[in-house]
Amino acid sequence: MNKEFNLENIIDGLARDNEKSLRELFNYYYPRLYNFSKSFIKIEDSIDDILQDVFIKIWQNRKHITRTDTFNAYIFTITKNLLLNELRRCLNHKHLKDELYELSTAHEYSFLETTTYADLELLVNEVVDELPDRQKQIFIMSRSKGMSNKEIAKKLNISTKTVEYHITLSIKYLKQKMSVLGFGYLLFFYLFL
């Protein structure tokens, strides 16, 4: 950390609603988070919006931030989660899915050419429909709508652990079913779910 940056003073300032502390925090962390984000998603257009959301979350939670030793992990975790949400949102756009699918599929696996992405997606959706109602609901909220576990827990009035439990069971089931269907479906699972 540079000499002028004192995280303890900044966290104290945030707790006292000092906007100057937020600016100092922004000036210190923005370049680091930007480079981290750029290496993570390669979609530079969205990074500024995502980082703006990171600092909004910091400001909204400023009264609960007390530890300097874990702050670095805290701010990078917020950033990573927002990046994952953005990535999921982008993947929900079909043309990006198709483009990513094209880029991620080696030519030696061109057996998939006979199966279109839409066919894979349709079959995967059928497997998702086989999940018990609650698991399906939580899985769709997580993977299709890009909601965080915490957001899902709040919306359904259940604990975050319960959300994690349902997602774990869903992924286990989907992975098992897709591995039986073949390599192409398993590849789809790892790329898009």
UniProtKB/TrEMBL annotation:
Q: Where is the RNA polymerase sigma factor 70 region 4 type domain?
A: 125-172
Query: One of this protein's Pfam families, by short name?
Result: Sigma70_r2
The entry's keywords: DNA-binding, Sigma factor, Transcription, Transcription regulation
What Gene3D superfamilies does the annotation carry?
Answer: 1.10.1740.10, Winged helix-like DNA-binding domain superfamily/Winged helix DNA-binding domain
Xref: PROSITE patterns: SIGMA70_ECF
Name all RNA polymerase sigma-70 region domain ranges.
25-89
Write out the GO biological process terms: DNA-templated transcription initiation
Q: Name one GO molecular function term.
A: sigma factor activity
Q: Does the keyword Transcription regulation apply?
A: yes
- Give the matching NCBIfam families: Sig70_bacteroi1, sigma70-ECF
Give the family, as the similarity comment puts it. Answer: Belongs to the sigma-70 factor family. ECF subfamily.
> Could you identify this protein by its name?
RNA polymerase sigma factor
Naturally occurring in which organism (per UniProt)? Saccharicrinis fermentans DSM 9555 = JCM 21142
